[in-house]
Each structure stands twice: as structure tokens, then as C-alpha cells.
Amino acid sequence: MPDTLLRFDTLEPLRAQVAAWRRAGERIVLVPTMGALHAGHLALVAHVRAIGQRAVVSIFVNPTQFGPTEDFSRYPRDTDTDLALLAEAGADAAWLPAVETMYPAGFSTRIEPGPAAEGLCGTFRPGHFSGVATVVTKLLNQVGPDVALFGEKDFQQLQVIRSVVRDLDIPVTIEGVPTLREADGLALSSRNRYLTPAERETAPRLHAVLSHIAERLAAGAEAGPLVGQGIAELEAAGFGPVQYLEVRDADTLAPVTRAARPARVIAAAYLGGTRLIDNVAVVPG
Length: 285
Ligand code: PAF
Hints:
Blueprint: E1 6-8, H1 11-23, E2 28-33, H2 39-50, E3 54-59, H3 79-89, E4 93-95, H4 99-102, H5 121-124, H6 128-143, E5 147-151, H7 155-167, E6 173-177, H8 197-202, H9 205-218, H10 223-237, E7 242-249, E8 263-271, E9 274-282
Parallel strand pairs: 1-4, 2-3, 2-5, 3-4, 5-6
Antiparallel strand pairs: 7-8, 8-9
Helix pairs in contact: 6-7, 9-10
The structure holds pantoate.
Pantoate binds at residues 32-34, 62, 65, 132, 135-136, 154, 157.
């Protein structure tokens, strides 16, 4: 395997490289990202390399998944640092399409995902999952990987992508990757760098509250009162607004009142100007 990171800004050379790897019998794994890479992304790359597969990392801050009042323009972009980190982690290729490459003049198609995109973030970010589904479909068609990895932190996104890939017969295996956390429980996220020092101290409460609810649900408790208490606790800690805190089935995302099957406690809440999301698995005992 080469020690150097190959960088692609245009599609044809990327496709030629992937085709060459495929002819050599190698497996290709795509790690789609919006850059501002953190230890979670790099652990994925290291994992792909450790199992002897080719790691292609896309970096593209996708304008179509941001709403008009969201953080598209201030989303952190530092391509040089990202590329240095990818080279160090042993990634094989970085795919860096420009916005005009991804959405050339005349681009007019959008994927509309089904029920997995309804509720939760779908309620608070209209059009978001259509933008995600469209760009991920394009990335999968561009790279043609055997496997694509997506973090479980964006749990609804993972289910939306699974449903799009299934419905459109895209020949790829989608793998969810467990959330990496700081020592105090805060889920790793590119947006954590927006937090002030005081907010950073408060932020792990989100994981703590979700974990407590997940434990009680696993022990047979009912969701409704736990969710109410959880929202109150988050607000008392300084979060607000809490956009949602819900318990959903881990496969179908249907609302759950008692966890008889694997479920997820899932939430989105603002802390100051930063929107944090997280979720914790409920494994019924
Ligand atoms: O999770 C992300 O970083 C983005 O939503 C993704 C999957 C790269 C699509 O732009």
C-alpha cells in the first residue's frame, strides 16, 4: 500500500484509481465526511487500513443539507490540516470535490427519503435529509466503494442512508460505527469546536441524561416520565431549546413507550449557539 495520500479534485482520475485497486482485487471503503476531521474520523481510517482495505475519505461541506439559518458559512474548513491528519492516519485517497463539481450548472435532481427522515431532526431541519440522501447517493456513485462507514452519532442519518441504499439498489454495504466519546462522555463532533469553555463543561450532561434514561428503560421503566425529567434536567443544566428527546425503535425509528426491543434514546438540543445531537442504545435485559 502507498504511504502517500492521493488527492483527487476531479472525478475521472479518482474513478481510474478505484478501478485499478479493484482490478488488483482490493476492497474499497468510503468514509464520507464534511472535513474538520476529529479522532473519530481518523479511527475509522486506521481501522480500514488495519483490515487491509483501501480507505477513500471524501471531504465536502454539502450546501444542500444546510437550512438558510444554519451554520453552512461558518462550518469549520481547514483542508490542509485535514489532509495532514489523513496522511498520518494512513488514508489512501482524499476526494475533494468543489461545489461546482458536485452540483454543476443545471443540476436538478434530489432524492426524497421516506419515513426514516420524518420526525426528530427531519422536523427541525426541513430538507436536510433530502440534501444528505442526494449527496451520499452521488458520493457512492462517484467512488463505487464496497463499504461505506457512517457514525452512529447521526443515528437518523444512518437509517435514512440505509433506506436509500436499499430502495435504490445501490451496491454497497452501509456500516454504522459506534460513537467515539471524550473521557467525560461528550460525543466527538466537528461542531464541538464552537463550544465556549463553560459550554464545554456543561456539554457532557447530554450524554449523562440519555444514558440514565437508557438504563431505566432497559430495566423496564416507561419512557414518558423519564423523557419529561430528562428535558427538565437538560434545561436546568443550561441547554435550550431542547428540540427533541425521544425514545425510538433502533431499526424502524418508530416511537417506543417501553423498550421490549433494542431502542435508542435520541436528542437534539442547543447549548448556547451550538446544536448538539446524541443518542444512546437501549438493550432490554
Ligand atoms: O455526516 C456527515 O458528515 C454528512 O452528513 C455526510 C454524511 C458526509 C453527508 O454530507
